[in-house]
TrEMBL record:
Pfam families: Phage_integrase (PF00589). Transmembrane segments: none annotated. Keywords: DNA recombination. The keyword RNA-binding does not apply. This is Tyrosine-type recombinase/integrase. It comes from Gloeocapsopsis crepidinum LEGE 06123. The keyword Nucleotidyltransferase does not apply.
Amino acid sequence: MPDSFTEQERDAVIEAFKNDKRLGMNFRHYAPIVEFWFLTGCRPSEAIGLKWEKVSDDCLIVTFDGSIQTVRGRQVWSDGSKNNKSRTIAVSSRVQELLQCIKPEIVNPSAYVFPSPKGLAINYPNFLDKVWHKVVDPIKPNTTPYNCRDTFITLQLVKSVPSAVIAKWCDTSTQMIDKNYADKLKLSQLRPMD
């Protein structure tokens, strides 16, 4: 069942990453990918595998056509999405600005948009255990980066974006959105029109 952050919790998580000051390895490095997860609704593995060649020069268009999965401790590239599709989306101005801020002056098209501190693909299980829980649990325990996707979908529904549009952005079905997100929202947040 989806478990989304509120907008306030989402913003608190993003700020916690941006302002992390722990000694040794602070986690500010991961703030861009966390913000990207929250603001695009992509699967965590899709952002981990995203390379600059899949981002338009003006950072307004992003193509998701694969992901990096961790299988038996090894990182494996998987073509297409979970649903074996490729999708190209226009991003919000906030995401465009985020991408422009982290885009290197000289872009290596095959470089990861959100690399690990060593320039490799982020190891998701390692990130989850050693980074995510340390930063996020004080704000909202028992979550994973996948809850960023839940948050994006939920907030778009609250803002009256049609589920068919959200489904295209997020590579899912309207039935999945209506069943798992909209029904829950109808009972808790949406109100009848006067």
